[in-house]
Amino acid sequence: MEPRTDARTAWAVYAALLFGTFITVEAAAFQAPALPSVTRHFGIPVNMAALVLIMYALALTVFAPVMGRLGDQHGRKRVISIGMLVFAASEFAAAWAPNFWFFLGARFVQGLGAACILPGVFAYAAHLFPDNKRGMALGILSFTMLFGATSGGLLGGLLIDRLGWPSVYWISGALTLIGLMPVRLLVPEIAPSKTRAAFDYTGAMLLFAVIAALLSLPTWATSFGKESIVTWAIVFTGIGSLVLLWRHSRKAENPVIDLGILSSRAFATPSAVYWLHMIFSSGIVYSLAFFINNRPGGTAAQFGLVTLFLYGSGLISSPIAGRLVDRIEPRVLSIAAILASLAGTVLFLNIDATTPLWMVIVVACILGLSIGCNTPAIMKLALGAVPAKDMGAGSGLFSMFRDLGSPTGSSLSLAVFGATLAHATHGAIARQAAPLGLDPATVDSLARAAGSRAREVPAELANQLAEAGLAADVLMSQATLEGLNAALSNVGYMLLGLITLALCLSLSLMKTRTLGSDTTSLSLDVSSD
Predict the structure, then answer these.
(1) Virtual CA dihedral for 356, 294, 36, 23, nearest 10 degrees?
(2) pLDDT tens across 323-335, in order?
(3) Which residues pair with 189 in a beta bridge?
(4) How many CB atoms lie within 10 A of CB 265?
(5) pLDDT in tens, 396-435
(6) What is the distance, to the nearest Å, from the Cα of residue 347 to the centroid of all Cα atoms in its chain?
(7) CA-to-CA distance for 270 and 331, rounded, in angstroms?
(8) Distance CA 132, CA 137 (A)
(9) Reduced to 3 states, what is the DSSP secondary structure of residue 45?
(10) Rg of the Cα trace of the chain?
(11) Residue 368 near residue 313, CB atoms below 8 Å
(12) Comparing C-alpha atoms, which of 26, 311, 234 is closest to residue 148?
């Protein structure tokens, strides 16, 4: 049979792949509304709930480059199909989980299944469309991922309220199996590389150690302190594993991290820009989640409205940007998007507990538009720098940067937000109660009470404050307000530094005509695998 490379066939194949991408991203977005219910169901402390997110992110980021390379060797359609089966089975396992540890194992396997799917879809986008039409395809891919993130939170909340938290896992598993059928029927196999090499188990284990250390470091540093032996053990483990991974990858025949691709400036620079932008985006979302829910009059519904506008703005801008990058230099659009994020961050720094919700939504829209514009431009630059024969490995590396950004951003922002909130609240209480001459232990007790939902204060202390003309509830509310404002401000300055660094890197992005990438789509082997 002749290879099918006409535009209509390419879009039909791509649509089948996009459905699998949508289900994967939407299932990941289900976690936000499901997490409180899962925590209550298994009777675990709130701090342990972070493992639900970390286990998925760890598997996804570590195995994305691994599965991308396996797709090069054994066929990308085959790896995507296996990934969808694994993903569906793990969703069913999570719904049925008899205990928390089984549930965590299912979450790790879900990340493994997603790692098989996403790099393959990125690789197909590069193979199905020539360079002058690839931007639109990547814009629609970005739209699909943002739509999955937007609908996942809303649909997940509705399902959980009516059918319970297991329903989101049963439904996403069933949808994945449904999505597997058009992939098997419509998607042709890309002929795998003729060269086969042994799997790089050593590199995979070292990469696992590096990413585990990176994701967990902010959490442990704020929990145990920067001078703790635990914190420094994680630091040395991460650095040591990174050095060993670099040395190993230079010698390995088929390394899990392809240094040939990673050392290319044309690939590394846009990937780094995208990684920083993803950290920035995640930091915005998670800091606003805690800020809006804890400020006076704030609710979870208000935060949901903010995220709807943030992701919805990206839904609008990403396909438009995809169309634009086929007509103008992607680096120009990327620089403009980063500048818009910089302007949005300046506005973000002016948000405090008295800022009306509509103003927060305006800031969210600016940031969402900028992120949606940057994604197709950066993807076109990065994937255009990868040789066709290594597209699976290259798309896997790019997927790793993308998927590593969100957990890194949430971990960093929550570490800064939590530490600042505790310190600023404690300082405000100490300052207001200074005339009473309270001992440090009593001030600590008040600060802990301010951070709890009940805000229970011992009767003797409440009476002592009342005699001095201070109401305990008012004192704690004012201190918490100061703490929230300081926490959001510190996160804002951290994000300002990140987006400024991203802007500096974006100014050094290469023009597409200098990349030397192929400008014609590759023929596909349509034989069944």
Answers:
(1) 30
(2) 888 888 888 999 9
(3) 525
(4) 11
(5) 778 777 777 877 787 778 778 877 887 888 787 777 766 6
(6) 23
(7) 9
(8) 10
(9) coil
(10) 24
(11) yes
(12) 26
